[in-house]
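B., you asked whether I could sanity-check this one before it goes into the benchmark set. Here's the sequence:
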Amino acid sequence: RMSHVIQVPRNRGTCMRFICRKFIFLRKIRTCMIGCGEVFVLYREYESGGRIFLNKNLNKSKSDYNDLLNIARSFAGKGHIVVIPGTVHYKDPLYKLLFKPLIGTRYYRKCPDLIIDDSCYEYESYVRPWSKRKSSNMLSNGLRQSDCVILDNNKGASDRFMRRLIISRIRIGSQIKEVWLFEKGKVRMFWKRKQENPEILLQCSEP
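And here's what the prediction gave me:
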């Protein structure tokens, strides 16, 4: 039986909105586990209240599998609820449960790599060696799946370069909500949209 007691990470304070969001998302995952043939398994639970759920049919031989797990650990360790859904066809009833926020958007029928607190994130990596063009391609490919993207930056594109890349996309009409960078096994928030000025850059070392 899953517990619905949520511990809020210290750096988030005691925000009721944050608590309610976790409660609703956990209830959704519980519905999936019970009503959809136990497709998901609880991979790990953290003292912070964070949890990782995996599709039990997840292809573990994919090149990005270990990266996705490391990203999930980084978020869940801070108290977030993370699901690695694997491939789910849009006609599957499970899709409507998991990806409800995508219905009616340009991303409907897409299947992003991660669901974090009921928001969808796409992770993009590259084939070595790294180049600036590959960073640009990662951002383009990720934005085809979600407006929240996580980019492999283990070879270290500079913050200045990534900032220019994001702003240039915004100026040609790309809708970008969040950009995170995956570096040395951890993620950091690099950019988050502000309604009043979508070009404002926010930087943060932790999720």
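One thing to flag: The radius of gyration is 17 Å. Otherwise nothing jumped out at me.
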